[in-house]
Design goal:
The complex is a heterodimer of chains A (about 725) and B (about 325).
Chain A: H1 2-9, H2 16-37, H3 40-44, H4 53-67, H5 69-73, E1 76-77, E2 86-87, H6 95-109, H7 116-142, H8 145-157, H9 159-162, H10 172-193, H11 196-212, H12 216-232, H13 238-255, H14 264-267, H15 272-293, H16 297-332, H17 335-338, H18 348-355, H19 357-371, H20 375-393, H21 398-420, H22 432-467, E3 475-478, E4 484-487, H23 489-500, E5 506-508, H24 514-521, E6 524-525, H25 534-545, H26 548-557, E7 562-566, H27 581-587, H28 615-618, H29 621-627, E8 643-644, E9 649-650, E10 661-666, E11 672-677, H30 693-706, H31 716-726
Parallel strand pairs in A: 5-6, 5-7
Antiparallel strand pairs in A: 1-2, 3-4, 7-11, 8-9, 10-11
Chain B: H1 2-43, E1 47-49, H2 51-59, E2 66-72, H3 81-98, E3 107-113, H4 118-123, E4 131-135, H5 149-152, H6 156-167, H7 180-198, H8 209-224, H9 227-233, E5 239-240, E6 247-248, H10 259-284, H11 289-317
Parallel strand pairs in B: 1-3, 2-3
Antiparallel strand pairs in B: 2-4, 5-6
Helix pairs in contact in B: 3-6, 10-11
The chains are: A mainly alpha (about 725), B alpha/beta (about 325).
């Protein structure tokens, strides 16, 4: 609690030297506290990259450091999305990789030889310190230094931000929040001073943000909104004009330098608000100029009214479009987007879980800001209102809300402490006999507030330790006596793939594991977490949910050598492929002749794996691969053999025989199972005639017209296959 | 001889007359049923049925009309969000049929709610809702008489296509245009415009910081209490346990929430915010010392009480959370 307690005394009016020393110490301690709070995973497990997306970022960074920057920009990754491949250089935000690569390069120049993996693991905790410094600077501009220090301490440990920046979580958001806060600081600074210097700084910071995260759209809409509201409030000034004109032009040009962004800033609707406000600002400034020369002021006011109404209409329509886009998207339920849990709306429990006391107190800060409004407090109010809306719509956008909540809560707490802490704030007017009573009351209030802050710190530590520090690549289970078992099945299996399979072997798995296979096993994958090609994912989903023969056709057409699945039935791991199975069915193309989602349910509409389960489910490839040889296995004496601990059921199909696949590897706790796809037998499948090049094409088209063939609906690859078999 | 003739005549009479009689009876019964159905349909385009009506008008044999039935569970405690949407679409379909020029007594639309006719659900061994079934005029329902909801969705157009397929009755879907949104917007604009016009000599209220601060706070509190989740997911207001009759306002899991619960949380958050503001006001305002003392005590009391209350609600939902304050 050192940083917190230190933050309080920053409000004291000390001599300048003491004050800056104190602020420096507090910021340093906040950095240290934030850094150490994020190390739970490293201490409990090891220095390892977490989860899914970070594995891709790590792999890309590794590519960058080994092959150089230009090679990275031109990188065509033939190991992903087989057989399509992926143009990585043009489809990533390179800021994260370049930052990590640069740090690695500088450290190596100084002969500090660290592995790039360690740089990647510790990047986000280090940047959290920078985030708290930029939050300090921004809050200081908005309110005062005491509030700034408090905000820095809040953001260092608040769970809403820690959730994306623990050690090992090497993801865009880790550095993007720093860039976001720093851009806002420089923007507020440039509005306050009206100097081109600060505006250029703001543009550069914005450029860094654009290179790091798609959330830059938030900045390019919030800053124009700020300018627009300032115009409406008749707070137009030369400072605003200089700041925004510089920011828009240079920021636009800079943001278009990122290959993945390209020409979007002048084409897409979410950037149009910025352009509209830019035009409006020029018109308004021109009218102001005219107003100084002319006398027909009434006419000008009317003209201004018309212009601002038109601009308002444009702005609202843009917002409307964005909003309806979101809501219609929620209605349609694109399965692949709906299947990702972080795209869900937010319950109040998540707000409280991630922000604790701050969620109740930040409206008070907002109240103080609006009551004592000025140019930059307009900005923070707009920031709070827009961020809270987006956080309500989507859980993952809690991340953009967290900084402003910290700032406003800091404002609220520091205004309370300002009045209740310290003797020099005491009024002169109250009579002497009341002063001891008042002191008691002040002390009581201070103590209680400190207690709340202590509870906040404890809550943050608990949440970080329990909810946000699991690498999910390595699992841990606890015995009754408190001792710990490490389940390292994932890495065991990926390492097996790396060592025992051909270098160019193609591994089919559900898309969740694509990045990990590429990163850890270094093998070619069919689909991964990038999810840019829905039909390809659908094809894999189809293979998993078909029966073995149909699946074999699909797998042969995709040149699959190995199939990797996650099975949690032995240890009771709930995130396995059988539990994700319905998404595979939903995403796979639904055509009337093919098995439907309802076919995988019992007639009563239940999803069951035991004897009562639907026969379609009991014979599909995913079921067979998951439970192959599982029927012989008795886990303990209370349950029958073949008892699935995740779904608490005895499996319904114990006698599973595989015809086209053979088991290649099963990890220690059966968490990962790998199957080899057999090559076709020599004497099998020769029903078709020898190739007749002239007739094939004609038959193919006629067949497609007739549409009678069942298999013709299975997608491009299968169509070719059927056509070969049929001719 | 005479007797034989008499018997044969009698037999002839019986054999000749009896079918005609039953036919007649059947026809009167049928026309009675049709009239009854027509009467109901004229009242509401979708007939609400319970177990008795279902057996009499749908299951019992003499029938020359098809019935399309939606089996649903619309009671709020069933928490069936899809049912509500499906019901709207079904109403659109039935209304389009009811008010079309081609309206005949060949097809009727009906609905059976689980809470009114659970025996029907048992009879048909159904346990999922909504389900659309078609009961043809002749013969038993076949497999295709069950609408494939998972595949085709419940848009009224799709339903109409299915009905046309099953009964040869073409229904053109006419959706009543939704005036509610534009009307509401127009009303709001009119109110704002009227207010502005009435106060045109005194537009001070636009510059009143309290109004703006208050509305900003309202918006923020609405969002942080999860109203957006309610808007998208449509949870019930509270849950009433059917066996004990006990009403619970707080959902037991941290993944979901009731509407009542979010209102409670909104109030708690607002109380804590108010406490903080009061604390500051107490220190800065120019009121006399006694009032400031009361404000200060009330402020810290509000913050402490409602925060610890909020914490205890959170603790009840988030199982395994170890900390509490003042109340457990």
């Amino acid at each position: 609690f050192t940083p917190l307690r230190g933050g309080l005394s920053g409000g004291l009016s000390q001599p300048a030297g003491w004050q800056s020393l104190l602020s420096f110490t507090i910021l340093f301690l906040a950095w240290l506290a934030g850094f150490s709070a994020r190390l739970f995973a490293v201490i409990r497990f090891e220095s390892i990259i977490h989860e899914f997306d970070p594995w891709f970022n790590y792999r890309a960074t590794h590519h960058l450091t080994t092959n150089g920057f230009y090679e990275f920009l031109n990188w065509f990754d033939e190991r992903a999305w087989y057989p399509l491949g992926r143009i990585v250089g043009g489809t990533v935000y390179p800021g994260l990789m370049v930052t990590a690569g640069l740090i690695h390069y500088v450290l190596n120049l100084l002969h500090v030889t660290v592995h790039i993996r360690d740089v990647c693991v510790f990047l986000a905790p280090v940047f959290s310190g920078l985030t708290s410094i930029s939050t300090f600077l921004l809050t200081k501009e908005l309110w005062n230094q005491g509030a700034g220090l408090m905000a820095a301490c809040f953001i260092a440990i608040v769970p809403g931000y820690i959730s994306r920046s623990v050690a090992g979580s090497f993801d865009n958001e880790g550095i993007a929040i720093f860039a976001l806060q720093f851009t806002y600081y420089l923007w507020v600074k440039s509005v306050k001073t009206g100097s081109v210097f600060w505006s250029i700084g703001c543009c550069l910071s914005y450029f860094y943000m654009v290179s790091a995260w798609g959330g830059y759209v938030f900045i390019i809409n919030l800053i124009p909104l700020h300018v627009f509201v300032l115009l409406l409030m008749q707070r137009f000034s030369k400072r605003v004009y200089i700041a925004y004109s510089t920011f828009y032009i240079i920021g636009l040009v800079l943001s278009m330098q990122i290959p993945f962004v390209g020409f979007q800033p002048i084409r897409t609707s979410e950037h149009m608000a910025a352009a509209g406000v830019f035009v409006l600002l020029q018109v308004y400034a021109f009218l102001q100029y005219l107003k100084d020369r002319l006398t027909k002021q009434e006419f000008q006011t009317l003209f201004f009214l018309g212009v601002s109404l038109a601009a308002g209409a444009v702005f609202l329509s843009v917002i409307y479009l964005t909003y309806t886009g979101r809501s219609s998207y929620a209605k349609i339920h694109i399965p692949i987007i709906a299947s990702v849990s972080e795209h869900q709306p937010t319950t109040w429990v998540s707000f409280f879980f991630d922000l604790h006391i701050l969620v109740c107190t930040f409206p008070a800060g907002l109240w103080f800001c609006i009551k004592n409004i000025n140019d930059e407090r307009v900005f923070v109010a707009l920031y709070a209102i827009s961020a809270v809306y987006f956080a309500g719509v989507m859980v993952r956008l809690m991340l953009t809300l967290t900084p402003v909540v910290c700032m406003l809560s800091a404002v609220a707490f520091s205004s309370v402490f300002e009045h209740y802490l310290g003797d020099d704030m005491k009024r002169q007017s109250p009579p002497l006999e009341d002063s001891s009573d008042e002191d008691d009351r002040k002390n009581a209030v201070t103590m209680l507030m400190l207690m709340l802050l202590m509870m906040f710190a404890v809550h943050c530590t608990w949440v970080t330790s329990n909810a946000y520090s699991s690498p999910s690549v390595v699992l841990a289970s606890y015995n009754n006596d408190g001792s710990r078992n490490i389940l390292d099945d994932f890495r065991e299996a990926y390492y097996w793939l790396r060592q025992n399979t051909d270098e160019h072997a193609r591994v089919m798995s559900w898309w969740d594991y694509g990045y990990q296979i590429a990163g850890m096993a270094n093998r070619t994958t069919l689909v991964d977490n990038n999810t840019w090609n829905n039909s390809h994912i659908a094809l894999v989903g189809k293979a998993m949910s078909s029966n073995e023969t149909a699946a074999y056709d699909i797998m042969r057409s995709l040149d699959v050598d190995y199939v990797l699945i996650i099975f949690g039935g032995v240890i009771g791991y709930s995130g396995d492929d059988i539990n994700k199975f319905l998404w595979m069915v939903r995403i796979s193309p639904s055509v009337a002749s093919q098995p439907q989602e309802s076919d995988y349910f019992t007639p009563q509409g239940e999803f069951r794996v035991d004897k009562a389960g639907s026969p379609t489910l009991l014979n599909c490839l995913m079921y067979k691969m998951s439970y192959y040889r599982f029927g012989e296995m008795q886990l303990d004496f209370r349950t029958p053999p073949g008892f699935d601990r995740t779904r608490n059921a005895e499996i319904g199909n114990k006698d599973i025989k595989l015809k086209h696949l053979e088991e290649a590897f099963t990890s220690e706790h059966w968490l990962v199972r790998i199957y080899k796809v057999k090559k076709p037998e020599n004497r099998d499948r020769v029903e078709h005639k020898l190739r007749g090049a002239d007739t094939t094409k004609q038959k193919y088209t006629s067949k497609k017209v007739s549409g009678g063939a069942e298999a013709s609906s299975e997608g491009v690859f299968i169509q070719e296959r059927t056509q070969l078999d049929g001719t | 001889m005479f007797g034989k003739l008499f018997i044969s005549l009698f037999l002839l009479f019986i054999f000749h007359n009896d079918p005609a009689d039953t036919q007649k009876k059947k026809e009167t019964l049928m026309s009675e049923k049709v009239t009854q159905m027509m009467e109901w349909t004229s009242k509401r385009s979708v007939i609400r049925m319970n177990g008795d009506k279902f057996r009499r008008f749908v299951k019992a044999p003499p029938r020359n009309y098809s019935v399309v039935i939606m089996f649903t569970a619309l009671q709020p405690q069933r928490q069936c969000g899809v049912c509500k949407q499906a019901d709207e679409e079904f109403q659109v379909l039935a209304n389009s049929w009811r008010y079309s020029s081609a309206f005949t007594n060949k097809v009727f639309f009906a609905t059976v709610d689980f809470d009114e006719g659970s025996d029907v659900f048992q009879m048909l061994s159904m346990n999922s809702a909504p389900t659309f079934l078609h009961f043809p005029a002749k013969g038993k329902p076949r497999k295709t008489d069950t609408y494939e909801l998972q595949v085709r969705g419940f848009a009224a157009e799709q339903l109409a296509r299915w009905v046309a397929d099953r009964t040869d009755v073409q229904i053109r879907i006419i959706r009543p245009p939704n005036y509610a949104g534009p009307l509401l917007l127009g009303f709001l604009l009119a109110v704002i415009g009227g207010l502005a016009y009435l106060r045109r000599h005194n537009l001070e209220f636009l510059f009143n910081k309290n109004v703006w601060a208050f509305s900003a706070l309202c918006f923020v509190l609405i969002m942080t209490s999860g109203q957006m989740w309610n808007h998208i997911r449509g949870p019930p207001y509270a849950h009433k346990n059917p066996s004990t009759g006990q009403v619970s306002y707080i959902h037991g899991s941290s993944q979901a929430q009731f509407v009542a619960e979010t209102h409670i949380v909104l109030l708690f958050n607002a109380a804590v915010t108010m406490g903080m503001v009061l604390l500051c006001e107490a220190a800065t305002s120019d009121l006399d010392i006694g009032k400031r003392k009361i404000m200060c005590v009330a402020g810290i009391g509000l913050v402490m009480l409602f925060f610890s209350w909020l914490l205890s609600v959170f603790r009840a939902k988030y199982h395994g959370y170890p900390y509490s304050f003042l109340m457990s």
